[in-house]
Amino acid sequence: MRGRFNRLHAMLLVAALVALSARGETAFYVSPGGADANTGTKEAPFRTLGRAQTFVREKAAAMQEDITVYVSGGVYRLKRPLVFTQQDSGRNGHAIIWKAVEGEKPVLSGGIVVEGWTQDAEGRWQTKVDVEDMRQFYVNGTRAQRARGAFPEGGGRYGEMQAIDADAGHTAPGEAMADWRNSGDIEFGYLSSWSHMICKVKSIARGGAGGVKIAMQQPGFFLASRKEGRQAELPSYIE
């Protein structure tokens, strides 16, 4: 009885594999060199993943076989996240599959290309970019360090840390920092053993006696100064 059951199980497994291998597919293609006005064929691929997604959703209601979206290699720049929902699921017992073209590497990127660089009289490269908060910057595929400098020697701390909204921060000798623009965009980094803390500056003002008073944004500075383990003391660097 056991041998008969095993033979039947094997026959059913072979039948299932044959059925799967016999399933056809409708294929659509996406390529950075395509155009969204195209029909999505291999010879005329779509250009954006969003257009391919919308097109496949329209086809899904009446699908009679699997739909596979082949994504060619290259960079696909997204202005918003690519979100898959129930609308992107298969119908009628068939599947919707997204996959890279064999041997190719598609890259989905939320970054923007920064162009228009010019060199100033001191040899520094600069450009303008309409980004509210830039934390990641890559040059030729390698992450670059943002503009960074050392915290002035002889600096200290001021303020009491008894309240989460306390007026507290740092002092530093010299008044040059008081003339820095966009003080709210400045961040201090604190490196201490295994801990790396980052706190934003609120304002920089002349503090008398030839120094400056650097108020830090709360509650970040309070939390970094009062947390368990290693705490923020003096900045290791300025960005």
* Secondary-structure element series: HEHEEEEEEEEEEEEEHE
Straight-line distance between termini: 76 Å
**What is the molecular shape?**
elongated
Determine the number of helices (DSSP H or I, runs of at least 4 residues). Answer: 3
Taking the sheet with the most strands, its summary is: 6 strands, antiparallel
Mean pLDDT: 88
Strand content range: 25-35%
In which range does the helix fraction lie?
10-25%
Could you give the order of strands across the largest sheet?
Answer: 10-11-14-13-12-15
- Please identify the structural class as seen in this structure: alpha+beta
Low-confidence stretches: 14-22
Q: Quick one: how many beta strands? A: 15
CA radius of gyration: 29 Å
How would you characterize the overall build of this protein?
It contains 3 helices and 15 strands. By secondary structure, the chain is an alpha+beta fold. A hairpin with a 2-residue loop joins β13 (195-208) and β14 (211-216). The termini are far apart. Mean pLDDT is 88; it is low at 14-22.
Which features characterize this protein?
239 residues; alpha+beta; six-stranded antiparallel sheet; three-stranded parallel sheet; 3 helices; 17% helix; elongated
What's the quick description here?
By secondary structure, the protein is of the alpha+beta class.
Secondary structure blueprint with pairings:
Blueprint: H1 2-22, E1 25-30, H2 49-60, E2 66-71, E3 74-77, E4 96-100, E5 106-109, E6 118-119, E7 125-126, E8 138-139, E9 142-143, E10 156-158, E11 169-173, E12 187-192, E13 195-208, E14 211-216, H3 220-226, E15 237-238
Parallel strand pairs: 1-2, 2-4, 3-5
Antiparallel strand pairs: 6-7, 8-9, 10-11, 11-14, 12-13, 12-15, 13-14
